[in-house]
Amino acid sequence: MSLRSLAAELLPAALQGLQRAPLAPADLAPGPEASSFAALQGKLGYLGKADLRLVREAYKFADEAHLGQFRATGQPYITHPIAVAGLCADWKLDAQAIMAALMHDTIEDQGVTKSELIEKFGAPTAELVDGLTKLDKLQFNTREESQAESFRKMLLAMARDVRVILIKLADRLHNMRTMQAMVPAKRQRIARETLDIYAPIAHRLGLNAMYRELQELCFEMLHPWRHAALSKAVKRARGNRRDIVERVQRDVEKAFAQHKLKIQVSGREKTVYSIYRKMREKHAGFAQVSDIFGFRIVVPTLTDCYVALGVLHQLYKPVPGRFKDYIAIPKANGYQSLHTTLVSPLGTAVEFQMRTEAMHAVAEAGVAAHWLYKVGDKGAGPDSRLSSMWLQSLLDIQDETRDAAEFLEHVKIDLYPDAVYVFTPRSKILALPRGATPVDFAYAIHSDVGDHTVAAKVNGEPAALRTELKSGDVVEIITAPGAKPNPGWLAMVRTGRARSKIRHYLKTLETDESRALGEKLLGQALRAEGLQLPSADPGDEAAVALWQQLARWGGNRNRGELLVDVGLGRKIAVIVAKRLAQFMAEAGIKPDAVTLSLTRFATDEAPAQGVVFIDGSEGNSIQFAACCRPIPGDPVVGYLGRGEGLLVHTADCPTGRRLYERDSERWMQVEWAEELVRPFDTSLHVLVRNGKGVLAQVASAVSSAEADIVHIDMDPEPAEEQIELRLIVSVRDRVHLADVLRTLRRSPVVSRVSRYRQG
Asked: Hey, CA dihedral for 146, 147, 149, 154, is it positive or negative?
């Protein structure tokens, strides 16, 4: 049965429930005991008397702060902090976390200051509350910008102290449980945010019980009709399969009793959202999603997990390819279990999970299991090993990313639930997102390894850097001291850490190159005024004053920022130089006649910025136009684009001529340096006779002329007799290009070859 037909069958009954009058605040409001400390105290038996006294003081403080404030449901607002603290108490978090949970909205909603909390409850508790506080009080241009900055603040606080996110998740769970009183648009927005951010974080930290409940609540808010229809179908299927479940449970208990193995067997039903997602992924109807039910078996020891697996495989036949060992190779969030799917006596597939008591605690509570098992251990801080690598990666991403939206983008990338598990040559296991490449692996080891990666081996064989890794692969990274990140890597990496490291390196490199180009352009333009650039020495007070004066005039913060703007073409060097010359004249610095005479151009038509010599080492600050692809030997000119750096065209390029007519003051004289450090790309059109091995012969001809083919393209529908190939080849200069053209013309398969330039 498809989802559509299932909805048609079940929606009428479901809609009756949805069309009933909405719950009034009085229907949702709990009794007065929910707003008293007694509602929480029963869960705090694990705390000492001194800690309990501090928690009571925090409750009184929060109660007074929220006095007269009500939730949308009509309840006193204090019921919400008490419920959040109760959820934290279920994890047995320490007194500081419980206090922070009680006061988590006091700074944000009631104007309480952080210093006031420090004075009353100490710095650690105040830091937790501050980490939970959004940045709504600051001014942002858009809601998205405000939200991204608030997420960044919370996630960085979480990376330093994981209790921040545990309290925040408890806060979000209680809000989701009580959202019926909100307007539909707000419900949808909060549910979408929860499904995109908070539920994946809960999963990443191993809080699987919370992860499942958040997903279920979000699904109900976002798609109420679908949720109602599927819930009805699951309820009906549960009744139809009750006999199967009871029989399987009896058979399992009997089999383990015969082997004298103590176990705890519990049935496990998949959530409505997980069934819906599986139907969407597999394009299947409800009837085809067979594994709605499963069993969890908790055993005393790790060895018993594997014994239990053997007992089950003797009892029922396993489904091939459905066994997973998450004990030997745990998931990234610390989850450990054995999974197997068996065929029941009636032919239905039933999933079993085997784990120990400690594994079960981690499976349900994840990083929070640290407190469940280590209450009172003063040496065990909140930085337990569970998920600590991911938490550390948040700090690494923050170091490289100053833009909040970009930071949030990187974090979302890292929240993918699917993972592959790969090995280093020394057998260390690394968990990476599905689709990760050797470049992701290199950055997961260390940023220096990633920055200097040149090649990789997968399972002992050379592999391309864009190869998608699979679970079980052994990956070896080959580095070289002179290597550096390639901009093309951004299209192949999957982890936020790798993406942020590459972007940071490229931005830093681009800034350095643009600053150097700006200094060169400004120096040449200033020499046309008969002056030399002021010193960059911070000890030269007169020069520092000049640079500060010039930066203020240009609207920049400092000398470096001004030079970057000149290098990127945001400011024209000639205009900046004339203003600097004016400031220098006011400071008593006069033009030098020798410098002036040496730098004057012979004709008035030549650009006034001086000559820029290019040798190929300039990096991203100087680009070569794709329309004409200039190479050494071509007469060239430079166009200083707005924010794009210097773009080099051939002197006869039609595109360049149109730019000159429109914006002539941005053109400058460019010449090739005598010593070149690399080859340059140019385009060729080659007409060849169609036949077997044509590409190989063309490639051989180019190679014999000691040139390289960078890119090759051809007509999508080749003609019967002749094909036009479009090549981008790398050559040293025009002499070398002429040699390549002669070699190609001598090839028997080539009818015509020419250099191609647009227009």
From this structure: positive
Cβ 578 vs Cβ 529: under 8 Å: yes
| 548/88 Cα distance (integer angstroms) | 54
| Spatial distance between the Cα atoms of 533 and 525, rounded to a whole number of angstroms | 10
Annotated catalytic residue within 51, 108, 325, 681:
108
* Structural contact between residues 167 and 130, judged by C-beta atoms closer than 8 angstroms: no
Catalytic-labelled residue, pool 51, 57, 109, 409: 109
Give φ, ψ of 479 to 5 degrees.
Answer: -120, 165
From the number of C-beta atoms within 10 Å of its C-beta (0-12, 13-18, 19+), residue 383 rates as middle
Cα–Cα distance measured from residue 264 to residue 294, given in angstroms and rounded to the nearest whole number: 14
Residue that is written with structure tokens 């819930």 in the block: 231
Q: Return d(Cα 270, Cα 236) in angstroms, integer.
A: 14
Q: Which backbone phi and psi does 70 adopt, to 5 degrees?
A: -130, 150
Contact assessment for residue 519 and residue 609, using Cβ atoms and an 8 Å cutoff: no
> What is the SS3 string spanning 44-107?
CCCCCHHHHHHHHHHHHHHHHHCCCCECCCCCECCHHHHHHHHHHHHCCCCHHHHHHHHCCCHH
Strands of 446-595, DSSP E: 453-458, 461-463, 475-479
Based on the residue annotation, tell me whether 130 is a catalytic residue of this protein.
no
- Give the pLDDT score at 46: 84
Alpha carbon of 307 to those of 57, 65, 380, 401, 731: distances in Å? 51, 57, 33, 49, 67
For residue 710 the two structure tokens come to 């960078």
* Domains detected in the chain: 3-229 (1.10.3210.10), 231-374 (3.30.460.10), 388-502 (3.10.20.30), 505-672 (no CATH), 680-755 (3.30.70.260)
Q: Could you report the per-residue pLDDT of 97-116, keeping only the tens digit for each?
A: 899 889 888 877 667 788 88
Measured over the CA atoms of residue 457, residue 459, residue 461 and residue 467, the dihedral's sign is: negative
Q: For residues 686 and 725, what is the distance between their CA atoms, to the nearest angstrom?
A: 5
The DSSP bridge partners found for residue 18 are none
Structure tokens at 143: 């809601």
Q: Report in angstroms the alpha-carbon separations of 74 from 24, 172, 174.
A: 9, 19, 15
E strand residue ranges, 186-269: 264-269
Q: Specify the pTM.
A: 0.52
Q: Which amino acid is at 447?
A: S
Q: Which helix (H) or strand (E) holds 354?
A: strand 349-356
Highest mean pLDDT among 117-131, 231-245, 543-557, 740-754: 740-754
Helix (H, G, I), strand (E, B) or coil at 395: helix
How far CA 438 is from CA of 3, 415, 422, 487, 496, in Å, comes to 40, 19, 10, 15, 14
Answer yes or no: are the C-beta atoms of 338 and 305 closer than 8 Å. yes
DSSP 20: S
In this prediction, residue 13 carries a pLDDT of 40
What is the DSSP-derived secondary structure letter of residue 454? E
**Tens-place pLDDT, residues 589-609:** 877 665 555 555 433 343 444
HSE-CB of 40 using CA atoms within 13 angstroms: 29
CB 685 within 8 A of CB 657: no
- Catalytic annotation present for 357: no
How far is CA 149 from each of CA 55, 144, 155, rounded to the nearest angstrom? 30, 9, 10
